Amino acid sequence: MTKRIVFLCILISSLFISGCSKNKDYEFKSERDFLSLGFGKNGDNYKWFYFTDQKFEEVTRPELAPVITKGPWTETIRISSANNIDNVANPKGYAVVNRLGILTFEGSSVNLSKDIGIFNNRTAGNLAFVNETPVFSVYKSSFFNETISASEYKKTEPHLFLLQYDDNTQLSYPVVNCNNILDKKEAEVTDYYWNGTDWFCSVKYEEDGKTNFSYMTWRPVSSLLSITPASAKTELIVSESDLQKYRNATAIKSFDSAPERIKNLLKGYGAQVPFTMSLKTAGGASPRLFQNENADFVRMERKCNAVIGKDLVSALFDDGTFYIQGSLSKRAFFNGGNPIVLRLPKLPAGFVYGEYVVTENTLFAAWEEASFYETERSGFIAVDLQAILYDN
């Protein structure tokens, strides 16, 4: 009970900080640099969708989606991670939907691949790509997931860790299990960071009635996608690490050290506005974390997801402010190659935008109803970027 209380206090503190963010007014170079969706002819350029416990459905507005029981974010249906591959000839995007399955975005179409055996009782997220193949992780939370205590799971059921998603079969296959990283029966890899070479893992396990953490580093000796849990013992180089090395790998850095392309994109965003950014490389490894901090950071912090690709760089803030620069697939540079900022439709109080992908011509952005460490309704918005950026 004590460990759960401590964990909840940490969650509540961090989420309360982000929940106290205040809106600000921003200045842009010209009206062309600022477009508000939902007004005038742009009103037909987007659609809302929400998740049921089986699929996604269209809805007029997020607040009109059926009310559901709130729960810890680890246990609820929500888009937990998303990114797109950086392939002009095949501009697909993917999203991990916790407790449900994998969304594939191609052009303006969306497909949900459910996999009850994997997603039903596990927390899923941490999407990355290996040779344009999506990989992600799953685990069971010892705080909120009662199935982790089931005798069958403790003794015989494999504790899954890393999986790859196959487009052809629309199924997810185990690549590495928890016991391949740490040989403990009750081990759960609760988080990982992959820098493109090494995989840094936080592993939690129970032993003699005590909760323990180990920090492990590993890398494959052959193609990761050819590995299975049965072959991993001879195809992984695994070494014990420590908390400090894990923290160094996952550390939040100053936004001053972010790539120049993302800093140039956000020149129009007030330098005094504090935010924390999760920056992904399209089709790449784990996101890097950056922070733009000032004296008002605790009071006014915003959350931001960003993606850098060959021809496109973009960033979406949790209030719906979306920066984009470059060109959509197979198209010329829009706005003369200068950044544009779009204001996505305003969400009701208590709702926020989150992860997103940009495919050939469409922005798909997650939304959810969030309250401290819990979430309720969730879904995504589909925005016709071609109509907005090229046809206006």
Q: What do you see in this structure?
A:
- There is one protein chain.
- With 392 residues, the chain is mainly β.
- Helix content is 15%, strand content 43%.
- It contains 9 helices and 26 strands.
- The N and C termini lie far apart (57 Å).
- The N terminus is likely disordered.
What would you say about this model in short?
Helices cover 15% and strands 43% of the residues. By secondary structure, it is mainly beta.
What's the helix and strand layout?
Layout: H1 2-19, E1 34-36, E2 46-51, E3 56-59, E4 71-72, E5 78-84, E6 92-98, E7 101-106, E8 109-114, H2 116-119, E9 123-130, E10 133-139, H3 151-155, E11 160-166, E12 171-177, H4 178-181, E13 188-194, E14 199-207, E15 210-220, H5 232-235, E16 236-240, H6 243-249, E17 252-254, H7 260-265, E18 275-281, E19 288-292, H8 297-300, E20 302-308, E21 312-317, E22 321-326, E23 340-343, E24 351-358, E25 362-371, E26 374-384, H9 385-389
Parallel strand pairs: 1-23, 17-19, 18-20
Antiparallel strand pairs: 2-3, 2-26, 4-26, 5-6, 6-7, 7-8, 9-10, 10-11, 11-12, 13-14, 14-15, 15-16, 18-19, 20-21, 21-22, 22-23, 24-25, 25-26
How many H/I helices? 9
Strand count: 26
Rg, alpha carbons? 21 Å
Write down the overall geometry.
globular
Quaternary arrangement of the chains shown? single chain
Main β sheet profile: 8 strands, mixed
Search tags:
six-stranded antiparallel sheet, mainly beta, 392 residues, 26 strands, globular
